[in-house]
Amino acid sequence: MRLLALPFESAILKKAAEIILKEHKDLSHIAVIFPTQRSKVYFQQFLAEISGREAMLLPRLYEVSEFLQEATISPYPGFLLNQWQRNLFLKEAIFQVRQDISKLFGNQLGPWEEDFLEFVTTGQRLLRFYDEILRERISFEALKKEALYTDYETHVEILANIFEHYAKLLKENRFIDPVLKETALLLDEDFLQTFKAIYFIGVITMTRTETTFFKGINTYAPLTVFFQANKKEGLISHQKVILNRWGKSEKEVHWLENNTTFNPPPSWTIRAFPQVTMQMGLILSAITQALNDGIKPHQIGIVLPDEEFKYLLLSYLSEHNLNLTMGLDIKHTLSYGFLERFFELFSSETEYGFYYQPFLGILSHPIIKTLFREEVKQWQEIVLKNNLLYVKKEILPKNRLFSFLNKIKRKLTQKTFGAFCKNLIQVLEEFHGYPELNALLEHYREIRGLNKILEALQELSTLEKLGVKIAKQPKFSHFFRFILKHLETLTYPLPARLTQAIQAMGILETRNMQFDVVIIPDMNEGLFPASSEKDLFLNTALRKRLGLPTYKDREGLYGYYFSRLTGGANRIYLSYVNDPKQGVRSRFIEKWVFEEIKKGRDLGKIEEEIKAYHHYLPFIMPQKDIQIPIKVSVRKDKNTLAYLETLKFSPSALLSYQCCPYQFYLKYVLQIPTPLEIKEWLTPQDIGQLLHITLKEVYTTWQPWEMSEEEFYHLLMRVLTEKLQQIPQFIHQPASRLGIEILKERFRFFVRQEYQDFQSGWRPQPQWLETEIEMKFKLGKRMVSLKGIPDRVDKKERFFRVIDYKTGYAPGPKQCEPGPEFKGIQLPFYLWLLNHKYGIPFQACEVLGIYDLKTEFKIKEPYKTFKHNPSIYMSEFKLWLEDTLARLFDTSKTWEKKPSPECDYCPYKSMCER
């Protein structure tokens, strides 16, 4: 066994390629092993560059696990299981164990038996645990011995018992577990004797099985192992453990010379950004500078601690200029999106029909919108305009859209999981038969994503052939949810461009890689290094005694990856998010800062430089913020004036103009309707409308002043309950019902107040209850139409009171005085109409009252000036009305925007450029 080591500054794959080409003229009988698949592709590239040959026989290239499977044989015959099949047999083994396993799994057994998907998460954790102890060659007897007299003694007993049943099941059914095959270490001598030499490039850490395996194969073909480390510090602890298991010492490792001609100290740039997306400024700046300096794209490596960052990269860099080694997520494809929306729709089905959110969700999916554009538009309007929380199946017409969806549902309603998978494959393949969908689905991303989905479904369709059920009862929802959960974990590859594209990868994929420029965003603790998963089933102390790696060992490897990656680079760019929600910056940045301080640099200046991120903003946004003027000059012309003369101005319209002329322009001149939204819960507006309708019916149909207080209350509750049964939010939301029950109890206060007023002589006037009143108002030479609908007008002898119901916001005394802050327009406006239309004197109006139907259930009188002197108040109101209407018709006044805190609640916020 030959042991070689290279310093971090050296390109390990290139150096290994040079040595192998020098030592072998014929490479066809050589095996080369790597820790990652990615290394294989780069290694081939170096062989071609160094040899200069147009064609050559390549060595046989393997990733470690591939070589182990090829070079070992099973101790018994059978078919090799995949990961899903292993889970199925493991679940079966658990249910065969005649032992109290609730101490380990609690009350999970019921859901596991019902639905295989419920088991998979735990199954994967169990398999990782078994795989780890098998690969570390720890027997269950040793495990039991170490766990004696600890809290884990019972757990270990159960775990050992489950595995015994699992192994027995496989043997009985003639199946092979890949890890059991690997750890049996029965070497395939015929296979190994085909090689004249074996090379393992980039050894960092190994399991006991792997160290035993490689020590054994050295007897069939000479093995050369390449390490890489910091030459000054020597091999890391993980590499020393491997040597110790091989019976070797560090003195037997031969250090090779650096194969790069010149290695100046690398330049470091570290920046803090307030937001994740702003890190793109540094990345684009670094790439631009490197390319301008002649560095080739493939010599630029972007390392992503958080793989979700890849989508941010793709939003700024063309995928043709970017090699994303981790691929893209299946869950972002149109095919997966349709399956998810379809499942959500039929999962929402109840006795009431389909819940509106998934119903609108599938209507908005691009596949459905493209195939059924007109039907989609029609049904979106129906649901929104009618506030349909549930869309009843009876009202769904038998048109193309719903026939299409029901046909798919019928096809997927199968008794077996295999049939379900096969029919789902047919459904997805049929999409590509629709000419209308070509533009959507023929993009190579969608095709690659679909191929991966079909491959996964084909694999899953064979599970039941093992004789193990996916679910106790075959259900559409169980099958569908299981498939979606599996698909959302998968990725599909993008075409690799090693010599033309910038390389983007996860930290583990950087093993054996070397770049001139290294860029690492998201350098926050928890991402770099990543938060360690809790040790499975054993605590840290037990793991140490058994010789199993702990979370500290895993975190230590991050230090090695980081040092190796940055040790061979010329330029290093690191960034992190300076936000408490993202956690503190990485310990590796803190170490760099400490090293800079040791060199004599001032800490304050270092921190100031790190946080100076504004230099990079021009790469992702304009250099200067463009100030959009708050006031927009939308002018009035003759046509606008002519249109305004046809309007009937209500208090709401005048209030809109008072608050913001631009809002009035959008709503009343352009007549842009406010965006429709589904209301799931009863809002104050809903309750207000409900009470208006209820009280109008009570006071126009009956005469409650002739009833007892209790009779009046029961009448009011009966009418209110009848109206509630017509409101979807009340029918379908139990929480809304509770709110109404509380409201009903509070309404006793309203009835008591009303009854007292009835006894004192006040009577609601049916002819003015929620009835529109119109009049003409002379404004100079122009006649202007006014209209209003008073909530209620009461009369007692010769006196009147005008009342407005309020279930939400009510103006205070300052806002009820005519002037710039005037918002209590309604009541004086209604009195003005009553005066001019029906001759009611201002002095005869005893009260302008706001009826609080939210908390106090009594009439409030915020119009202080009116109460003191109605004539003076109404004269001031007239001046305000004339001035407001004059400004509204004045062509020199534009439809300007008035900024205020209320802008955040404006229904036209999305249309306003403020």
Automatic annotation (TrEMBL):
It comes from the Bacteria. Residues 649-913 form the PD-(D/E)XK endonuclease-like domain. Transmembrane segments: none annotated. It holds the Pfam family PDDEXK_1. This is PD-(D/E)XK endonuclease-like domain-containing protein. It comes from Desulfofervidus auxilii.
